[in-house]
Amino acid sequence: MKLSHLLRAVILAAVLLPIAGAQTLDGDFLNHENEEPLIFDVSEYDRTWITGDTDNDATVDYALRLDEYGQKFLEAVDFNRDGKMDDFYFYHDGALKREELDTNYDGRIDLWIFLHRGVYVEAYHRDTDYDGVVDLIKEFGGP
């Protein structure tokens, strides 16, 4: 299942990279201090979240939090259906800004994909050895 999760992220990047504009990575993508902490445990999603059980196994595997204007703010998905969220999507003004993935399902993020206008991949950061430290950074576009 790990491979299919990584493959999905690679396919997303492969589809979006050819259309990536000449934008540079914007500094506020990296400012996480005003965001809510990630919730991996599906039992911790309270009534402030819209939750779903997409495979009807009586376990939450999708959660959505809206901002004060009713637009998407944060989404979480349990991709491998193990009871822990592993895909997180961050939005600003309704546009997808960043996706964070736990590709090896150890409860820690190891891939960050940064987007511009919710469509164009600007960069990705990767913890390739799963030690909690980003050791691969790839930025697209140019000055």
Write structural notes for this entry.
This protein is mainly beta and 143 residues long. The protein has one domain (2-139). The protein contains one helix and eight strands. The protein has one helix at 2-16, and strands spanning 50-52, 62-66, 72-77, 87-92, 95-101, 111-116, 120-126, 136-139. An eight-stranded antiparallel beta sheet has the order 1-2-3-4-5-6-7-8, covered by helices on one side. Strand 6 (111-116) and strand 7 form a beta hairpin. Mean pLDDT is 81; it is low at 10-31.
Q: How many structural units, i.e. domains?
A: 1
Mean pLDDT across all residues, rounded?
Answer: 81
Largest sheet data: 8 strands, antiparallel
In DSSP terms (H or I, runs of 4 or more residues), the helix count works out at 1
* Contiguous uncertain segments of 5+ residues: 10-31
Distance between the termini: 38 Å
Which strand order spans the largest sheet, edge to edge or round the barrel? 1-2-3-4-5-6-7-8
Residue share in helix? 10-25%
Task: Provide the structure class.
Answer: mainly beta
Count of strand segments:
8
Shape: globular
Series of secondary-structure elements, N-terminal to C-terminal = HEEEEEEEE
Strand content: 25-35%
Determine Rg (CA atoms, Å). 15 Å
What descriptors fit this protein?
1 helix; 143 residues; eight-stranded antiparallel beta sheet; mainly beta; single chain; globular; 8 strands
